[in-house]
Structure formats: C-alpha cells, structure tokens
Amino acid sequence: AKERGKNNYHFYDSALDQITSRKMELENGLRRALELDELRIFYQPKVQMDTGDILGVEALLRWEHPILGLISPAEFIPIAEETGLIIPIGKWVLRNAIEQSIYWENTGIGTIPVAVNISVRQIKDEDFVVDVKEILEATSFVPSCLELEITESIMQDFNRSTHVLKQLKQLGLNISMDDFGTGYSSLNNLRHLPINSIKIDKSFVDDIINFNGSIVRAIIDMAENMDFNIIAEGVETKEQVKFLLDNSCFTGQGYYFSKPLPAGDLEKYIIQCSSI
Ligand code: C2E
Ligand code: CA
Ligand code: CA
Ligand code: CA
C-alpha cells in the first residue's frame, strides 16, 4: 500500500507539473501575443428571435498560439487578469471590434452594433474611462453602437463601480450585465446600477430543456419591472426559442443561431440572413 501511495504521489506530482508548465508557457506567450499579432476576435450574432433580424454582435477573443493552436479565453483571460495584461489586451479588443463595426458600416454590410466583454480588473483601472473615450474619439464611432458587457463581480466594489459605470454611460454607450444570476447581485444594488440590459446566464437557459424555466421566467419578470432589456445566452434549441418568446424574451444568442465566427464568416451569415 505504501508503494502504491508513493506512485500515486509521483503521478499527481507530474500531472501538476504539466498544468503549471502550461500555465507558465501561456503566461510568457501572452506577453508577446499582442506584438506577434496572435489574437483574433470572433463575433457571435445577437438575434431578434421572432424575426431573425441581427441586432448586433458580441466580440469574443481567441488566441492563435503558434504551437498550441486556438486557445479559449476561458483559459487565458484569467491569466491576463492575474498578470494585468488584460489592460492592454482589453484596449486592443475594444479598438479592433469598433474598427470592425466601422468596416461593416462603410462597406454596406450594415450597421452592426458591437458588444465587448470587460473584466472587473479593467473597471478598476483608473485610466479605463479615459481610454474608452479616446478610442471612441479616435475612431469617431457612434457610441450608442457600443455595448460593454460587465459581470456581477463588479458588485464587490459597488460604489466605485457605479461611479465608473455612470461616467461610461455619459459617453453614450450601453452597458449590459453578463452571466446574470450567477454572481453577487442583490436586486436592490442591481436597481441602482446604470445598466441597459441583462443577459440571462446559459445555465438557466439550459434548464428550459429540462422543463424548468421558472428561473428564466422570474428573471424576465424582474427585468421588465426594472426596465432593463433582456437577452438570453446559450440558446441551442427550438424549444428554448419557443419558451423564451412565449415569455416575452425576444432577443437571444447561441449556437441555435450561430457560433462565434471570424469576421468574414459572420459577413456571409449576415448577408444570408438578410436575403431570406
Ligand atoms: P461570455 O461573455 O459569457 O461569452 C459566452 C460564451 O459562451 C462564449 O464562450 C461563447 O462562445 C459561448 N456560447 C455562446 N453560445 C453558446 C451556446 O449556444 N452553447 C454553448 N455551449 N456555448 C455558447 P467563449 O468565446 O469561449 O468565451 C468564454 C468567456 O471568456 C466569455 O464568456 C467571457 O467571459 C470571456 N471573454 C471572451 N472574450 C473576452 C474579452 O475580449 N475580454 C474579456 N475580459 N473576457 C472575454
Ligand atoms: Ca459576454
Ligand atoms: Ca455570458
Ligand atoms: Ca460566462
């Protein structure tokens, strides 16, 4: 038994080593990913579910690592947050997503508002508001076509976050609460945040498939009462679409409509949708 225990220990040790070295590899690589032009933005449509109209897109970051291949933001965003690299990376995403939307406007593809994910680490950065303002000015982008997606973790520092969000809203952009229902929000705090819309977290939308839409229904009711727009995330089936429409949630995002796509593929999707 002693012998086995020892082997287990060695196995565990080397598995842990592997995880640690991948993390170190990513950490070092991420520092150079920006200058080496390895970051990509994919776009996922937000769809008006009763008409099929595309209301906008969400920008979702990818890292095309030269050796490890396409790396998910779920893996490298936490590293970017820990190291502070999320600040320059976040600026890059904002700038590029805006420039993409301007390109779609100028080439006649359409007016496609764009939503960008913002880490709480960015909200805490004292230059954030000025950075956003400068990017909007430098690009002459229509601020109402920009949405920032934040999460409930901003509630940890409610007063300061509220102050920052108010300044952002004064720039004329929109703010949405992402992953709603998974975090720290008390309804009372939520009511006092300057946000435009709420995104129902995928986990609740998943429940619809198991015939349990009660939380989704409660969130929709609450959003209506508080005058927030509402959008469902992670919509994958026709049944979910029907349930959401039956309960007055008209906007959705998910694989049922489209996965996140490179800009060029999204253009094809838009053109195909508008020709039906
Ligand atoms: P999120 O903001 O909640 O984005 C939704 C995630 O769900 C995306 O994963 C999207 O690809 C995925 N998704 C969308 N529809 C479906 C569906 O129908 N089924 C399933 N199974 N998944 C669906 P992704 O692209 O891997 O991004 C993961 C997370 O990484 C995002 O979650 C967001 O929190 C973060 N992230 C992505 N890009 C950025 C960024 O530029 N900045 C920051 N700070 N975070 C980012
Ligand atoms: Ca999001
Ligand atoms: Ca989300
Ligand atoms: Ca999420």
Automatic annotation (TrEMBL):
<protein>
    <submittedName>
        <fullName>EAL domain-containing protein</fullName>
    </submittedName>
</protein>
<feature type="domain" description="EAL">
    <location>
        <begin position="23"/>
        <end position="274"/>
    </location>
</feature>
